[in-house]
Amino acid sequence: MNYRWFAVARVLHVFAIVIWIGGIAAVTTVIFPAIRRIDSNEQKVWLFEQVEHNFRPQARTAWLIVGLTGIYMVGSLGAWKRFVEPHYWWMNAMVGLWVVFGLMLFIVEPLVVGPRIRRSLASEPRAALARIEVLHWMLLALSLAVIASVVGGIYGLF
Ligand code: HEM
């Protein structure tokens, strides 16, 4: 294993996770409460769409960097067999979360639910935004649980 490149990959892995999951945390805990305090439905939807529009390319880029650096690290560590060892369940949790976000960012949101969300934002904005907020809380909780599992797992907590 080339230790220097492994360290670079790990730095990039963590940077991308900070930007990506930190972005979700900011949207969920800061932006959504602000949106709730806005009276006008048009302004609510406008702000939400601006935030999503700006965050989407950032999340997609971070997702890609996390995956590439993660796969590189698994290869460097020769750790492919971890995926079948129950003790390393947190490795599967990490990749599982990455797959879930990948499906949402590249397939489900743009191709499947995106048009429906836009319709419900136009017809019933408050209810639609409340549903999207709950989804963001769920994704944030899941992401934090995975981060805690991975860091704990690396240090032999499980
Ligand atoms: C294809 C997807 C992914 C792969 C292959 C992957 C692989 C890896 C590997 C091999 C390590 C080093 C493990 C060790 O030193 O024993 C690692 C560290 C880590 N990964 Fe991932 N990962 C992926 C996605 C994710 C995701 C989605 C998250 C969380 C949102 C995540 C969070 C972390 C964290 C927090 C660390 C520890 C960093 C540190 O303490 O330096 N990874 N990952």
Walkthrough of the structure:
The chain has 158 residues and is mostly helical. The protein has one domain. The chain is 87% helix and 0% strand. Helix 1 (3-37) packs antiparallel against helix 2, helix 1 (3-37) runs antiparallel to helix 4 and helix 3 runs antiparallel to helix 4. The two termini are 26 Å apart. The mean pLDDT is 96. Protoporphyrin IX containing FE binds at residues 10, 13-14, 17, 21, 66-67, 70-71, 73-74, 77, 79, 94-95, 97-98, 143, 146-147, 150-151, 154.
Write the layout of secondary structure elements.
Blueprint: H1 3-37, H2 41-77, H3 89-123, H4 125-154
- Dominant shape: elongated
Number of helices: 4
Count of DSSP E strands?
0
**Rg:** 18 Å
Q: What is the CA–CA distance across the termini?
A: 26 Å
H and E string: HHHH
List the keywords.
binds protoporphyrin IX containing FE; mainly alpha; elongated; 0% strand
Give a short synopsis of this structure.
The protein has 158 residues and is mostly helical.
